[in-house]
Amino acid sequence: MADYFKLRKAEVLEKLNNLKEELPEFTDEFFVGIASLTSELTRLNYAYDLRVFFYYLTVGTRRFKNRIPTEFCKADLETITTYDLENYLEWLSSYDFNGKHYTNEANGKARKLSTVRAMFKYFFNKGDIVANTAAKVTMPKLHDKEIIRLEGKEVENILNATQTGDGLTKKSLDFHEKTKVRDKAIVTLLLGTGIRVSECVGLNINDIDFNNRAFTVTRKGGSRTILYFGKEVEDALGEYIYDERLNVKDALDPDALFLSLQKKRICVRTVEILVKKYAHLIAPLKKISPHKLRSTFGTNLYRETRDIYMVADVLGHRDVNTTKKHYAAISDDHRRQAAEVIKLKNDDEN
Q: Please, are residues 169 and 161 in contact by the beta-carbon 8 Å criterion?
């Protein structure tokens, strides 16, 4: 695995270990028990959710009022009722925590309840608690999210925007002049291959193989996969690498493909900001992120191939249902196709 991903894994584990200090000691067993089944980032998100849950118990239930979260034990799970958990979902709608105000819609509530369910299920299966109370609570009804992506000329327009900077403020144009070749390469790569933003920033120079128009990407979980790119991606990457990147002799991360102006490996946040900046110029009413560029690629690939399994494979989805869920155009295109194939009158009739 590339050093970038090893460092990121270490950072996530450090955050997780620090966060566990704020949780009941018995939750350590839960995190150890699910370690082989989940990623470090998943466990970190579980820890964030459980921190909120145990805080809720200390402020939202009478019998645990003013209890410190670290004082809870497994026996306390036996006393938590379905009412407590249903009230927890309602409390999540609007609450204050650590000096900040938070709100959750159905998706956020469902994720947090899913975390609590996972903890209850783990200790129930081990025989440490006699009832899996959390499993009795109905998950919030989820509504399909609007799938936002770039359409038609918008793809061409955002690529042009990375080159020209038309519409940027004077201050932004100063930065644009220094980063336009890099930015074009990044946006072209995201649109042309559908890789995740984390996969993009983790690329090293030696991951690129121009002879075969291929590159090696580190997927979720650390697996390494060879993907391929077309002529437009080849041109954008080639211009950046040969005209700029290889001329940087004092890079702080000499292996990294994409560098910041500080000559360090570019970070996820920087890519998110630059994508948002150019997308706002050409589609100001759409909230475009790197993930939306991934959606754009997935939708375009499906429309060209009509092969949902190919889309899932290229995007690195383990389950094709994940692909179907994220690309509403697939269902929309099916409906359009159904309308076109149904004939009410024989074409041969006059």
A: no
CA gap 322, 107 in Å, rounded? 16
CA distance 313 to 241: 28
The series of mean pLDDT values per 10 residues for the chain, 350 residues long, is: 79 96 97 94 97 97 93 96 97 95 95 97 96 95 78 92 92 92 97 94 95 91 88 96 94 94 95 96 93 90 84 83 64 60 59
**Which superfamily is assigned to 153-288 in CATH?**
Intergrase catalytic core (1.10.443.10)
Specify the DSSP element, H or E, that contains 216.
strand 214-218
Interhelix angle 328-341/290-305, nearest 10 degrees: 30
CB 88 within 8 A of CB 54: no
pTM score of the predicted model: 0.80
Report which residue type is found at 202. Answer: G
DSSP characters over 282-345: H-TTS---HHHHHHHHHHHHHHHH--HHHHHHHHT-SSHHHHHHH-HHHHHHHHHHHHHH--SS
Domain ranges of the chain: 3-136, 153-288
